[in-house]
Amino acid sequence: xxxxxxxxxxxxxxxxxxxxxxxxxxxxxxxxxxxxxxxxxxxxxxxxxxxxxxxxxxxxxxxxxxxxxxxxxxxxxxxxxxxxxxxxxxxxxxxxxxxxxxxxxxxxxxxxxxxxxxxxxxxxxxxxxxxxxxxxxxxxxxxxxxxxxxxxxxxxxxxxxxxxxxxxxxxxxxxxxxxxxxxxxxxxxxxxxxxxxxxxxxxxxxxxxxxxxxxxxxxxxxxxxxxxxxxxxxxxxxxxxxxxxxxxxxxxxxxxxxxxxxxxxxxxxxxxxxxxxxxxxxxxxxxxxxxxxxxxxxxxxxxxxxxxxxxxxxxxxxxxxxxxxxxxxxxxxxxxxxxxxxxxxxxxxxxxxxxxxxxxxxxxxxxxxxxxxxxxxxxxxxxxxxxxxxxx
Length: 392
Ligand code: NZQ
Ligand code: ZN
Prior knowledge:
Blueprint: E1 11-14, H1 22-29, E2 33-38, H2 42-45, H3 48-58, E3 62-66, H4 75-88, E4 92-97, H5 99-114, H6 119-122, E5 134-138, E6 150-155, E7 160-165, E8 173-176, H7 186-204, H8 212-234, H9 239-252, H10 267-279, H11 283-299, H12 304-313, H13 322-339, H14 355-369, H15 381-391
Parallel strand pairs: 1-8, 2-3, 2-4, 4-5, 5-8
Antiparallel strand pairs: 6-7
This protein binds 5,6-dihydroxy-NADP and zinc ion (ZN).
5,6-dihydroxy-NADP binds next to α2, α5, β6, α7 and α10.
């Protein structure tokens, strides 16, 4: 078991009408000018943004707004937000939306707090020194960005999708009302469920350390997520299942399921970020499309954690060699993906990367990491091209 630091300072306000507490939460933060940041229209259509504006008005707060965040959020809008924030003296950013909106808010916060060209922080040329405080009203359970220390942005110049992690970006509060996720298209609900699972799966596949309590918590989180993903497939308005999934999403990426290990593998995420960077696919669907191929490729080398995944998470029964058990677990997970209408091959995303594009993505992945991807097996660019080919 490894030593660890567990730091989750985000105050969670969970349940029906949780957004009614917004005014009091902002007052607690002592901010004077808020930037309300949102996406492409769902929060306006649902009436949520209207309620947010009313809450700020009631508190006598001033604010500016910047909408238009797209999935796989873009650097150009981040620059616009930083410019707006500087001009208007913004001292708090309220993200109303999903992972893309929250990540865009964090990047704007980095730009305002750390100065200079914000992209240099993603390129690891400089370190984050500060981030303007962030608050979140979550509308999709998926990324866990509402409690996480990371954000992922795509630069249109070269379609490079890079992450930037800093404790300073963990949101001060996260309002989570499961009812707000009931307007989601089924596809986005399923993408979210896969992403939630993957955040714990990435941590499950560690190379060193680990502890029984974390394994048991993780297995329970994954099993609960799969159960309620299937319920939501048939009954999307089920409040209790929405709530289970929403809480699982936050816990899956706040560090809890990584305690005691080396932090996990994360190669599937790095590989997927190249796919969604270049082809603009939904992150959760991209993960589902590449995971099985990654798993087959690396489990040949190191099946140990795949065997325990098969037994404790997918609850595969029967005997077999390590290799056979590992494969059974991988197949069972792919079966779950298909059951919630998620792809298990890249082509099912409606794209067909060429040989050159697969090479480009693999090289960009390694360059972005400044080294090999993954821990269970350290992958170089050739390995990643192979995985893309298997996943086609
Ligand atoms: O833009 P609007 O109109 O709001 O539509 C969004 C968007 O089209 C829609 N949506 C959200 N809430 C809705 C809704 N539609 C109807 N009703 C609602 N209540 O859903 C679509 C997807 O939204 P998005 O925010 O893009 O989804 P998600 O939360 O999955 O975020 C994906 C982004 O987060 C990154 C991903 O790479 C991707 O860029 N990630 C961020 C992480 C982090 N910061 O910790 C970790 C993750 O691994 C991930 O990489
Ligand atoms: Zn993810």
